[in-house]
Amino acid sequence: MKRGILLVNLGSPDSPNPKDVKRYLGEFLMDERVIDVPLWARNLLVKGIILNTRPKASAKAYKKIWWDEGSPLIVLSERLQEKVQELVDYPVALAMRYGSMAIKNGLQELVDKGCTEIKTIPLYPQFAMATTETIDVKVDELVAEYFPQLKITRTPAFYHREDYINVLSKSIAEKLDGLDYEHILFSYHGVPERHIRKSDITNGNCKMNGKCCFKKGSPQHEFCYRHQCEITTVNVAKKLGLKNGTYSTTFQSRLGFDPWLKPYTDRTIERMGKAGTKKMAIVTPAFVSDCLETLEEIAMEGEEIFHEVGGEEFTVIPCLNDREDFAQVLANMVEEWATTKKPLTV
Ligand SMILES: C=CC1=C(C)c2cc3[nH]c(cc4nc(cc5[nH]c(cc1n2)c(C)c5CCC(=O)O)C(CCC(=O)O)=C4C)c(C)c3C=C
Ligand SMILES: [Fe+2]
Ligand SMILES: [Fe+2]
């Protein structure tokens, strides 16, 4: 038996050109766990509307954040993989759920190195159909079709691991050290509210009213993205000793006309700026690697909104990216797998 690790992130287009962005968005948005409507409706919406309207604007946005080495999300994930590799004794491969760095290739790379037991680690702290679940399901499909000999161990969302909360808190404290700020926004990628109801294993516990997500001990929390985002904020706030009223949770990056998780980040930035907040900090804990949604939507568009309504200082806290201490969190997960030790949670 030989063990191997597969880190999996979201993915990016091959280049910031409209053709590559269109191909990438086509694969991403045709995932039934992302646009969760029947196939005929998804075809109509994605191929008939979104792919004919969005790629040009998205490509323009990607161009603004693209690095000489490539997509920030991919480059940062590769750097993280190298750091994890230095910390563990098993081969570590990297794959993306969408785009050219396919999960199938990542599994093949590990198989070629002789691995027979693979731990997959989705690089998402919070569970959602569009994050952890779509990776787990894709891995299962690929294993059934191409690698039936492999034994796969899944890794659940890690939002409540103590080591993760410590590292996230430390990254925020380091950036804000010596800075004067009035409010810190915890902005998570949004999902349509419908996704939360679909993942609700208690069939109706989640009322989307802000209370169910804080109820202690509900079995539904394991699959509730909203709960996991809220609790990430609460635990970091506790760790950093943030006072009530000086921090809040919001959701960004809506697409389409359905209701998405609220409050919305852009509207909150605008409202707080209008209400007189001058110095705001913002952290994006749903993203492990800086990407279009943090570097463009938050650091560029978000800052612009804030300044337009009278805000003065807008401090963006980087994602965990390839921090050594974050690589150590992932290495801890590997160690627990190898020794069957249980993680410490908060
Ligand atoms: C962090 C978790 C993410 C969830 C949950 C998520 C859900 C989700 N996303 C879309 C639509 C788009 N997302 C886009 C970019 C994007 N999304 C995530 C992460 C999550 N998405 C990341 C890390 C990125 C950036 C990728 C990069 O290359 O940097 C985009 C593309 C960009 C754009 O055109 O604006 C779309 C579209 C939906 C519908 C969804 C639903 C659950
Ligand atoms: Fe997204
Ligand atoms: Fe909930």
From TrEMBL:
Q: Which organism is it from?
A: Winogradskyella luteola
* Pfam name, any one: Ferrochelatase
Full protein name:
Ferrochelatase
Q: What does this protein do?
A: Catalyzes the ferrous insertion into protoporphyrin IX.
Catalysed reaction, written as an equation: Fe-coproporphyrin III + 2 H(+) = coproporphyrin III + Fe(2+); heme b + 2 H(+) = protoporphyrin IX + Fe(2+)
Q: What pathway does this protein act in?
A: Porphyrin-containing compound metabolism; protoheme biosynthesis; protoheme from protoporphyrin-IX: step 1/1
EC number(s) per entry: 4.98.1.1
Gene Ontology cellular-component annotations: cytoplasm
